[in-house]
Write a structure and sequence with these properties.
Blueprint (H helix, E strand, L loop, with lengths): L2 H20 L2 H9 L20 E4 L13 H7 L4 E4 L16 H19 L4 E6 L1 H4 L1 H7 L6 E7 L21 H8 L1 H4 L6 H7 L9 E6 L19 E5 H4 L7 H6 L2 H11 L15
Parallel strand pairs: 1-2, 1-3, 3-4, 4-5, 5-6
Helix pairs in contact: 4-6
Length: about 290
């Protein structure tokens, strides 16, 4: 690892702590319980301005609250009905989700979108996911009928074509039984390794399905979904964004870009409402 990358991690942690600290405590508490805030408020009705509910899908080891303490209020403040779900739970493992088989997690997403659409009366939802949460919905869209119920999928640092974890997965063959152990105990992790049977099926025949607008937001400092270029999709209705092309000063890595990066959040807002999109720059951190 280069020396500057060693410095990046503690800096990123500091920035994350600072960003969480400046979110008013009352806002975080209200969002977490969300009795009437628009975040997981099933009485929320989409407006004419924002006619579709937004479903947030957390990443691996995340959950429906911790992953969205910044983005959910950001979107709710802009007038969206916002919902978040838990998926991929393993028996005996609390709080850390996204570890179960990804095809089964997609089935959970399917049921949850149906629940949100029934509650809000909307015909379609928009889906925003971080990491696995930006990739897993593609299975729902492609194989479980989700394309008829989803207008847009926005992936923040999604491992769309798998990850090699900066080459670490190449070491698995040198540890007999390691791959089988990973697959048996945490199938959601095994499914995300480059070349897995799950990813081979997901990406066969093309990355996208007709009728859905796709946006991918990546950071060149990603150390989890690597190489970062593997996150990008190919298709006729795809917008691939490298966040450093919009703000070269953005140091977000895999976690920070989903948890607290308001520059990335501005791109999410643009993807959800392209008719009113505004330029994303370094100043978007203040928007």
């Amino acid at each position: 690892m280069l020396p500057w990358k060693r410095l990046l991690r503690p800096l990123a942690a500091l920035l994350l702590a600072a960003s969480v600290a400046i979110v008013p405590a009352a806002t975080v508490a209200r969002a977490a319980s969300a009795p009437s805030s628009g975040w997981n408020d099933y009485s929320c009705k989409p407006s004419a301005t924002h006619p579709r509910p937004v479903v947030l899908v957390h990443g691996t080891f995340g959950n429906s609250v911790d992953n969205w303490l910044a983005l959910a209020p950001y979107l709710e403040h802009r007038g969206y009905c916002v919902f978040s779900m838990d998926y991929g739970q393993l028996s005996g493992v609390p709080l850390f989700y996204g570890l179960g088989p990804i095809d089964k997690s997609a089935e959970q997403l399917s049921a949850y979108v149906d629940k949100v659409l029934a509650a809000t009366g909307a015909a379609k939802a928009d889906v925003v996911g971080h990491s696995q949460g930006g990739m897993m919905p593609r299975y729902y869209l492609k194989f479980l009928g989700g394309a008829a119920k989803v207008n847009a999928l926005v992936g923040i640092a999604p491992d769309n074509h798998g990850t090699d974890l900066d080459g670490l997965t190449n070491l698995l063959p040198y540890f007999p039984g390691a791959a089988d152990l990973l697959s048996k105990n945490t199938p959601g992790l095994a499914d995300q390794i480059v070349g897995s049977a799950f990813l081979t099926k997901l990406n066969a025949g093309g990355d996208t399905v007709p009728g859905v607008h796709y946006t991918v937001i990546a950071t060149k400092h990603d150390e989890v979904a690597t190489p970062y270029s593997s996150q990008f999709l190919s298709g006729s209705d795809v917008h691939n964004v490298l966040i450093q092309n919009l703000c070269s000063l953005d140091l977000s890595e895999h976690v920070l870009i989903g948890l607290a990066d308001r520059i990335a959040f501005h791109e999410v807002a643009n993807a959800l409402d392209p008719a009113h999109a505004t330029a994303t720059t370094c100043a978007s951190v203040l928007s």
